[in-house]
Amino acid sequence: MTQMASADESVVVIGGTGKTGRRVVARLREQGVETRAASRSGETPFDWADRSTWRPALAGASAAYIVPLDASPSPTPALVEEAVASGVRRLVLLSARGVDVPGYFGASYDGNGPHMEGETAVRASGVDWTILRPGWFAQNFDEGVFLDGVTSGELALATGDGAAAFVDADDIAAVAVAALTEDGHAGRTYELSGPRALGIGEALAEIEKATGIRSAYVPVGEQEFLAGLVAQGIPEAEAALWADALKPIRTHREAAVADGVRRALGREPRDFTDFVRDAAAGGAWQR
């Protein structure tokens, strides 16, 4: 595959301070690609709720990585339209595994949520596009929703005996950078996962082995889980979405190993053990 050769090529990363966005920014800059990190707290102001920030963030960019806002209706189609009008010629969209599968995120999910609205817009944009569909991130254990449970010694989730092939956010970023800077990825949708499935308890055991930090996995029923979230002050509707998001793990749908990393990069995805080793070396989970 060939690198984008023109000296005036530049990339804007929408969501450039998030889990995947900041990794994409770092990798692009390591390669010498002119890159702007666009977000509410980034160096380039961008706010999904303030459309006056969109055009300045996109101006002059030849490619864009988009971390969408998970809201309905999705604002991604409008951003895609703005990006194309601004001269962006290559779009890489972060979507999610299972977004086109009715029932994947609960009985009420019909396969046409906000992520699909964004995918449809990107596919119809008229420019080169690539879509990334990762499963659950390994980084949820060290910088995401599982972190408090890991450090408190008890992680209670409505995931039963389910498992997930947790994908490393560094792999997601590597695929995104390849799609942004190389030929051969246009028109492709990459399903992304790690190389093997782990149950929550198995993942916690790996963390304990590397760090000595012991955390017990406590499987709870869905209603008990919901009640616990509401008791913490989380609105019922938001709590229900959170419970639905765990369903793919509970039903083992997240356990399937996808081939997107290998297709895009020609190598196997990073293992959960690699993630834990590097996260621990970086000081994750230190008390």
UniProtKB/TrEMBL annotation:
A Pfam family per the record: NAD_binding_10
Domain NAD(P)-binding residue range list: 15-182
Domain of life of the organism encoding this protein: Bacteria
InterPro entries, per the entry: Ergot_Alk_Oxidoreductase, NAD(P)-bd_dom, NAD(P)-bd_dom_sf
PANTHER family reported in the protein's UniProt record: PRESTALK A DIFFERENTIATION PROTEIN A, PTHR43162
Name used for this protein in its record: NAD(P)H-binding protein
